[in-house]
Protein: GDP-L-fucose synthase
Amino acid sequence: MANLEAKIFVAGHRGMVGSAIVRRLKSLGYSNIVTRTRSELELLNQKAVQDFFQSKKFDEVYLAAAKVGGIHANNTYPAEFIYENMMIEANIIHAAHQNEVQKLLFLGSSCIYPKFAPQPMNENALLTGQLEATNEPYAIAKIAGIKLCESYNRQYDRDYRSVMPTNLYGPGDNFHPENSHVIPALLRRFHEAVNSRVKEVVIWGSGKPMREFLHVDDMAAASVHVMNLDKSIYDTHTEPMLSHINVGTGVDCTIRELAETVAKVTGFQGELKFDASKPDGTPRKLLDVSRLASLGWNASISLEEGLAQTYRWFLEHQEIFRK
Structure:
């Protein structure tokens, strides 16, 4: 049973995932949620994090804080991506342990799996092959977070769990023209095309690669669900030294289908042109979510519904993306 009085720290509450987790917790009636901005608590500062945990005595921690970005950002800032993510994870997980926090949920990424892992990707695929080169530093940092959780569980009998989401989107996403992921990038591009009355939108690649997308509110719901699973039930569904669980829809679509849906949502009626001279990336990237389904959770927000909601959010907040 969930303890609605539990003192919970949500690290990264201003990010897309962290803010969704806070919304989810509040909607369920949790009344003791603690958050801190970066100016209030620098998560890269080990002493600051230790002092914070020592003074607050948390019951649960959601570790959603991370440095994230698309291919361009990962290629441009690999040092920052591996350093900042590893430091945040190490500081928070270790501080949680030292201050007797028994329950923690670490949010990772599906990029932890090998580039050519069998599809759909099962949790057992971890560390069975070479990673995608463009985001290898980020992936290694996330793998380190999983192994930190597993190690504290193994040595100290902690209850630190990890969830690996597929490609996320939704309110609070990054719509930067260069550093954003595919959905916010397409939503912005089609929006600008409609406003400029452009008759054609060019999309990189052939449009044939397949991707899976999960609305961030579904991700938040899954995170709280996994955190609240009874430890005995969780353990029976988790193999030794395998503490992570995939979170996704179990359904993918081609980039062409995604673009066509974005065009519909934004009202773009022009032509879609795919530039096959540009790289496609991995042909397919789909998670096997059968483990999570066996634990009682499935996604509920369809792609078109989620895209429409995200586009409405963008329209309401577009002033902050015009810089």
Remarks:
- The radius of gyration is 20 Å.
- The first strand starts at residue 8 and ends at 11.
- The CA atoms of residues 120 and 274 lie 26 Å apart.
- The mean pLDDT is 93.
